[in-house]
Amino acid sequence: KEAAIETDVVIVGAGPAGLFSVFELGLLDIKAHVIDILPRAGGQCSELYPEKPIYDIPGLPVCTGQELTDNLLKQIEPFHPTFHFNEMVETLMSLGTAEKPEFRLSTDAGKIFHAKVVFIAAGGGSFQPKKPPIPKIESYEGKSVFYAVRRMEDFRDKNVVIVGGGDSALDWTLNLQPVAKSVTLVHRRDQFRAAPHSVSAMQELVAAGKIDFRLGQITSVEGEDGELASAVLKGNDGVEEKLACERLMPFFGLTMKLGPVADWGLQLNENLIPVDTEKFETSHPGIFAVGDINSYPGKLKLILSGFHEVALAAQKAHRYVYPDKKLLFQYTTSSTNLQKKLGVS
Ligand code: FAD
Question: What quaternary arrangement does the UniProt entry report (predicted)?
Fold first, then answer.
């Protein structure tokens, strides 16, 4: 049998709906693995508006996107979810029956999961890197062109070229400098959208001759069998120059695309997954869709809707995971059983 991670539930997406799913499922003793293509939890809240205030979370008059994420992470701590960041769920296959569902999921990092139920909390879809307009760049992706760092070792003793002027570009310039043979940062302008302390740290490394900073853009690359050898830099003065380049990291921001969810054989309606409003289950028994990704009459794409949906979906998930156990309705305020699970009594 293939080496798979066995779990009760796989949650696709670590946005607010995915995170609160861990809580509601955890109260019902359902253990979760959570997978997100981003390097951190929080979905849109952390990626698109970490510092903006949200005013319509019940009981929290105001909190920022990042504060909400941090609070959700704290709230689910007692359930010890396992996170798999920087990984996209690519395939979802059904192995079981309608009464006893079982699923096999695989990620683009090669991990396999076996789960009894699946919660799709994929929001507006997976955040995916915007690609630079460099001919044939696809043939190098995953081998020598990367949009995220999975293993620092892939960059050891390599000539690394990083393109961009935001936080990711600057963070990886700083982090890879001690590991790589050389680091060249390429940006169109001499201004950066990154945290000021990262920008000054980068400028100090340039002044000390430890990294190179070049104004311009990469217009083409050369190499063989997916392994890069060089990249052509077109300077802002129009002059072209060949740079030694074995690893290229373009950081041009992210877009949201539905992504692989579209290929999982689920009924879709305008890129959303129709569900019922009793259990938020999809057209396939055992697969639930919660948060922004689902659709039903009257749906509002609000965080509070996702919270409600996951509480109800968890009730039905319990029937699949523990078919012989009866589910008792309990309050966290008064149930010592729930309080034990939360580690508060
Ligand atoms: P998301 O937050 O979109 O998270 C989904 C996650 O799933 C993403 O991290 C994505 O990378 C991941 N994912 C998708 N597919 C895959 C895959 N195949 N493999 C791995 N990972 C995958 N709502 C409010 O209630 N109040 C507000 O004030 C408010 N303000 C907003 C302001 C802005 C600027 C924006 C953009 C949105 C705002 N919203 C607000 C909406 C709110 O952010 C969304 O309703 C909420 O984030 C939806 O949560 P979610 O968990 O369903 O999805």
Answer: Homodimer.
pLDDT at 320: 97
Cβ distance 31 to 7 under 8 Å? yes
- Atom nearest to 304 CA in ligand 1: 25
Q: Are 217 and 133 in contact (CB under 8 A)?
A: no
d(CA 113, CA 84): 11
126 with 136: CB under 8 angstroms? no
331 is annotated as contributing to ligand binding: no
Residue 2's pLDDT is: 64
Q: Which residues pair with 289 in a beta bridge?
A: 120
Distance of CA 101 to the CA centre of its chain: 26
Q: Give the list of residues 6+ apart from residue 74 with CB closer than 8 angstroms, or none.
A: none
Q: Whole-angstrom Cα distance, residue 239 to residue 241?
A: 7
Superfamily of domain 131-252: FAD/NAD(P)-binding domain (3.50.50.60)
**Whose CA is closest to atom 29 on ligand 1?**
54
Domains in the chain: boundaries: 5-127+255-341, 131-252
333, burial (CB in 10 Å: exposed 0-12, middle 13-18, buried 19+): exposed
CA distance 128 to 257: 7
Task: Give pLDDT < 50 ranges for the chain.
Answer: none
Query: Encoding tokens for residue 9?
Result: 């539930």
In this prediction the pTM is: 0.85
Atom of ligand 1 nearest to the CA of 17: 51
Whether 320 contacts 116, CB under 8 Å: yes
Task: Give Cα separations from 288 to 211, 270, 276, 285, 294 (angstroms).
Answer: 48, 18, 10, 8, 9
Q: 8 among the known binding-site residues? A: no
Place of tokens 């008059």: 61
- For domain 5-127+255-341, give the CATH superfamily: FAD/NAD(P)-binding domain (3.50.50.60)
